[in-house]
Amino acid sequence: MTDRWSLNRGATMRSDGTVSFAVWAPSVERLSVVVRPDDREEEVELSRDGGGVWRGTASGLERGHDYVYRLDGARDRPDPVSRHQPAGVHGPSRIVAPGAFEWTDGDWRGLEMADLIIYELHVGTFTPAGTFTGVAERLPYLRELGVTAIELMPVAQFPGRRNWGYDGVHPYAPQDSYGGPDGLRRLVDAAHREGLGVILDVVYNHLGPEGNYLSEFGPYFTDRYVTPWGKAINFDGPDSDEVRRYFIDNARYWIREFHIDGLRLDAVHAIYDFGAVHILEEIGAAVHAEAASPGRRGLVIAESDLNDPRLTRSAERGGYALDAAWSDDFHHAVHAALTGEGRGYYVDFGDVSDVAKAVRDRFVLDGRYSKFRRRRHGTAAGDVPADRFVVFIQNHDQVGNRAQGERLSSLVSFEQRKLAAALLFLSPYVPLIFMGEEYGDEAPFLYFVDHGDEELLEAVRRGRQREFARFEWGDAIPDPGDAKTFERSRLDPDAADRSPHSELLDLYREAIAVRRAEPALRPGAARVEVESDPEAGWISLLLSHEERGALAVFNLGGATAGPEIVIPAGVWERRLATDDRAYGGPGAETPAALVSEGGKAVDVLMAGHSAALFIRKAG
């Protein structure tokens, strides 16, 4: 049996009391490590091997001691594989002893995609504390809500104390202001005790602009491709083998040293690799192997706007074998149908038939013409199981990338919000909730940064103005660098105790409970049939699993409607209706039961902007 993988770049504490250092730096002629134990400074010269990796060993060091690399005798820089940056992105790195943490999750085995109900959160704004500990204190609430996993927006060390996380420049160092590496370990351990998985959002398509010193060490970046955020990562050019290793090691690192259950890969459409084996395939295989070694399940979920099913197809079928991909089309179709917005990428959506297609076919843009892109986009994905798609009615991007950061609670009526929730939880896909959505938090989620460079901050402001031009949202955009912008984005959990927020929360809890209890609602388990009448504004979704059957009916129109639907014979009992008084509705117009003789249409009376779920009675 071979030994498990371990990270052997950066600073590694050895059993003999020494610390070994290893850093890939082919771009420098001389490299030393400057260590700072007990307020004194010592410099240790490192030697270079034929692959451009510099190595050396120092004694007399302990966890908590700081160090920097000195490049060519002139420039002190943090470690590219720093595990901890307590003084920020420009400061020294700190020696960490990952094996010293006492885990209590030895019986935890992870989750399957089909069992996920994901809760996406931003550590800094989810609680007043804005820390990993603050999140841990809210885990019982999330467990009672019924979610099965939390998804953390990126936590790699970023400049300052306020950031979405996508400006991280130390991919191995959990943000110090959140609680650093041990704070993240304690959160993951606590989540597993609550029966919750932890998914971590990681950014492998770019690094942030401030504190990004990687290019001084080696050719981590390339000019051959362009991303919206700066230079692309060099995954397929000269000297790219070590670059690929850097990010594959990082993926394994989160699974090994932090017991993370899955990674969400940010914007993989901006990861460029034209080699024979794509970096995404290698990352997926590495995560699966690393999690399997201690008998756990590791997941890799891609964010992509390509509508390309190759991401989740098996390697045997020419795919990358990732576990799932986000489906923006579901969000866009539901959002445009409920809000009537038609600018920017919403120009390709808006009809009830688009919502029906998203529910039935995974993608709306599956090879058809996109007005937004002015070309055909995507391809069919009907052969890919439904549990390979993560859907949402809100997320950090779709809220935060609006000029004013409005949530759905500020854009549609209360009844429409409940209808949107029903579309989410009764769809055949894996649902994701954005923090606060479950009770209709009205705080915006705005874009915020804490850069120390005023010129960079001004460039960010101009970039946001350009980004919103196609949506015609105007020029009054909250200043990303103002601390008040960050403060306005904090959740108000006390709102959940007030009406109508409490009724919405009750609906979310019940919808999640029904979904988890009903086999026909488990993604990938059921045969799915979708009917719709775009003119009348309704959609029906029939899910059949063995002897079980579930019928979901959605009225996206504002008026009462009576769709006629053909369903299998039997008595179908109403299990959930969004217009029930218990959920702040006017009182259910929806019938308590449907009786079908089979082959004949059954009339289903539906209030405007409502949804209902019927379960076929056994026997």
From TrEMBL:
InterPro entries recorded: GH, GH13_cat_dom, Glyco_hydro_13_N, Ig-like_fold, Ig_E-set, Trehalose_TreZ, Trehalose_TreZ_E-set_sf
UniProt keyword Repeat present: no
Transit peptide recorded as keyword: no
Keyword entries, A-Z: Carbohydrate metabolism, Cytoplasm, Glycosidase, Hydrolase
Enzyme class per UniProt: hydrolase
Site (Transition state stabilizer): 397
Catalytic residues identified in the record: 266 (nucleophile), 303 (proton donor)
SMART domains xref list: Aamy (SM00642)
Superkingdom: Bacteria
Domain (Glycosyl hydrolase family 13 catalytic): residue spans on this chain: 95-466
Annotated localization: Cytoplasm
GO BP terms, alphabetized: trehalose biosynthetic process
Positions contributing to substrate binding: 264-269, 328-332, 396-401
Catalysis: reaction(s): hydrolysis of (1->4)-alpha-D-glucosidic linkage in 4-alpha-D-[(1->4)-alpha-D-glucanosyl]n trehalose to yield trehalose and (1->4)-alpha-D-glucan
One MF term in the entry's GO annotations: 4-alpha-D-(1->4)-alpha-D-glucanotrehalose trehalohydrolase activity
EC number(s) per entry: 3.2.1.141
Pathway(s) it belongs to: Glycan biosynthesis; trehalose biosynthesis
GO cellular component: cytoplasm
Protein family membership: Belongs to the glycosyl hydrolase 13 family.
PANTHER family referenced in this protein's UniProt entry, alphabetically: 1,4-ALPHA-GLUCAN-BRANCHING ENZYME (PTHR43651), MALTO-OLIGOSYLTREHALOSE TREHALOHYDROLASE (PTHR43651:SF11)
Protein name stated in the entry: Malto-oligosyltrehalose trehalohydrolase
UniProt source species: Candidatus Kutchimonas denitrificans
